[in-house]
């Protein structure tokens, strides 16, 4: 079998999100102090309203379970997560195959990362394909 045999129409269609391929949600996190501005995306969430575990989480990131737990203790955390989820699903219902989601905080290390991980988990549990990057 040649490598070109894999490039049939069915395989191309599956890999092209503009055809009948999977819905893709591209989530990226960043720090506003690093970028100097809010980056453009279809959906943007500002995590600076969430609890900042900066002092308690020195040397850790939003990937650490303890940091994620601290961020989750923020008032209205679940409501923010649900409203962001609904905004993403709303964009997908408009017929787009790909949605970009920007999640930011001050430095892009704790809150935005923790929130984006929970958002990714929720989207994947609902059957969506999510790509997550930290800028």
Unreliable segments of 5+ consecutive residues: 1-20
- The strand count comes to 4
Helix content: 25-40%
Average the pLDDT over all residues and give the rounded result: 85
- Overall domain count: 1
Concise synopsis of the structure shown:
The protein has five helices and four strands; from the N terminus they run αβαβααβαβ. The chain is an alpha/beta fold. The protein has a four-stranded parallel β-sheet with strand order 2-3-1-4.
Which features does this protein show?
four-stranded parallel β-sheet; disordered N terminus; 135 residues; alpha/beta; 5 helices
Q: What can you see in these coordinates?
A:
The structure is a single chain. The protein is of the alpha/beta class and 135 residues long. The protein is built from five helices and four strands. It has one domain (20-134). It is 38% helix and 19% strand. A four-stranded parallel beta sheet has the order 2-3-1-4.
Topology at a glance:
Layout: H1 9-15, E1 24-31, H2 32-35, E2 43-46, H3 65-72, H4 77-93, E3 98-105, H5 111-125, E4 129-134
Parallel strand pairs: 1-3, 1-4, 2-3
């Amino acid at each position: 079998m040649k490598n070109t045999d894999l490039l049939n129409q069915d395989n191309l269609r599956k890999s092209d999100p503009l055809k009948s391929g999977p819905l893709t949600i591209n989530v990226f996190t960043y720090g506003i102090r690093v970028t100097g501005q809010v980056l453009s995306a279809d959906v943007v969430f500002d995590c600076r309203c969430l609890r900042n575990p900066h002092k308690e989480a020195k040397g850790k990131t939003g990937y650490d379970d303890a940091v994620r737990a601290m961020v989750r203790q923020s008032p209205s955390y679940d409501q923010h997560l649900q409203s962001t989820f609904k905004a993403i699903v709303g964009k997908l219902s408009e017929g787009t195959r790909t949605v970009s989601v920007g999640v930011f905080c001050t430095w892009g290390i704790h809150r935005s990362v923790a929130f984006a991980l929970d958002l990714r988990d929720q989207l994947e549990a609902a059957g969506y394909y999510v790509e997550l990057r930290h800028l």
